[in-house]
Amino acid sequence: MAKINRKRAEQLLFPIISENGDSQVGGEKEKGFGDPNFSRNKTLPIHRWVPWIAGFSSDFVQSALDGFLRNKGTVLDPFCGVGTTVFEAIRNGHNAIGFEINPYAVLASRVKTNAYCIDLGVFASTIDDFQQFYTEKISTNYKPISTPPQGFKTRTSFYSPRVLYKVLIAQDFVHAIDDENIRDLFRLAFASTMVSYSNYSYEPSLGRRVSAGREEIHDFPVARAITDKLTDMAEDIAWVQEYIERNNLDIRIIGDSFFHCREHLLPASVDLIITSPPYLNNYHYNRNTRPQLYWLGYAHSPDDLKKLENLNFGKFWQTVRDFDRIDLAFTLPQTDIEERLQMLRKLNKEKGPYGGNGWANYAAAYFNDCHKFTEGIQYVLKRGGTALVVIGNSILQGVMIPTDEYFGKIAEAMGMELLKIDVPRATRVGNSIIQSDVRVGKAEVSHQLYEAVVVLRKP
Ligand SMILES: C[S@@+](CC[C@H](N)C(=O)[O-])C[C@H]1O[C@@H](n2cnc3c(N)ncnc32)[C@H](O)[C@@H]1O
């Protein structure tokens, strides 16, 4: 039977605790926030299951919990991604709620927070069965029953024929698993590894390997990649079950837009919000997870992605650039937001929708969603409750947009208290706009990209 090492997950976690001294792990009061960057998560139990662009680190969430929620309470992440906040909140003994529109991320968050309920014996023996099934089928002339998702179109074959054959054998096994919880663990293990043996890669947007100067993958030990992931998952589940008390917590992952929060949550029901909405950088979570959405059966045609696109916080430049003009739906006296958008609007007119007007439309649509988001914060937070919002600034056509400051001002104008704006990390890489040729005077302008934590309180 697959061997589960309970200690290993614990050892993975331990360095963060000892690194920062006592149990605070960078407590907000003394040390400021931990770095919100996700990269440290890649080695931590549970968080290492699924990489997520612009996900934030568990250290950051821990420092936020230490600083702002001493007693048991309810923590909300309105844009929960793969569940970093939600899992850390549970680990610290709080009730936790997450909203997320991307079904692959919803699956990841649900599976992670369900770790308590997994029968580890059944999981371990199913991993063994998988290895046996695969070894037997690959060595015979087996014809897989599964087929690739029909609607999933790519410029180059997503998988080379040999890799596809192996993937389909794995799919046959996964589809036949009776226990839904165990099947979801396998689906997640496949989804989180599936790009690594494809002819595509994340740079950080999904693109053909050859375009990034990498070779196509003609063959790959697919079952080993999936089994390695499953083994990590089993170890982490064993660690969760042994070291984290469940304490009858209320845990909800809501697969819907936070803009519909009134349909799901009571007013004034949340103590602390820790979140990071999509940035004003046009990073396309939905397009970049097309392989997972199609292969997991969440998308069947471009219409399914369109639906997600329409729900997405901040919209996308591609969906608003052609409008004559999108304006702010609110006024924000004592800021230069109107002037800055106006300045942007006038730039590069000769480029039509690719010039300043298209980007000003995108920025205005983004801030209109910041306004709607603040309404949601006000609705769900208890009086005296805090919201920590990690947000990155942006540079559009050479114009720096201090997103954090404007968001803070929007919240203030709507009656929230702006406690502070903290900048734990002053450089950011991987912004998709930087890498596109529609970008910003070809980076002649030396504005710095940063991420800030906007700290708000509901009076
Ligand atoms: C910056 S990521 C958050 C990552 C998260 N902090 C983590 O560690 O995984 C933003 C997330 O917001 C989600 N999202 C976008 N619009 C949304 C909406 N209207 N309601 C809920 N989630 C949304 C995106 O799918 C994406 O996963």
Number of helices: 16
- What fraction strand? 5-15%
Task: Evaluate the radius of gyration.
Answer: 23 Å
The description of the largest β-sheet is: 7 strands, mixed
Might you state the CATH topology name of the largest domain? Rossmann fold
Keywords summarizing the entry:
16 helices, globular, 7-stranded mixed sheet, 459 residues, Rossmann fold, two-stranded antiparallel sheet, 11 strands, alpha/beta, binds S-adenosylmethionine, 41% helix, single chain
Write the layout of secondary structure elements.
Blueprint: H1 6-19, H2 28-31, H3 58-68, E1 74-77, H4 84-91, E2 95-99, H5 103-113, H6 120-138, H7 161-175, H8 180-193, E3 200-202, E4 206-208, H9 222-243, E5 251-254, E6 270-275, H10 285-288, H11 290-295, H12 302-311, H13 317-320, H14 337-346, H15 356-380, E7 381-392, E8 394-396, E9 399-401, H16 403-413, E10 417-425, E11 451-457
Parallel strand pairs: 1-2, 1-6, 2-5, 6-7
Antiparallel strand pairs: 3-4, 7-11, 8-9, 10-11
Bound molecules: S-adenosylmethionine.
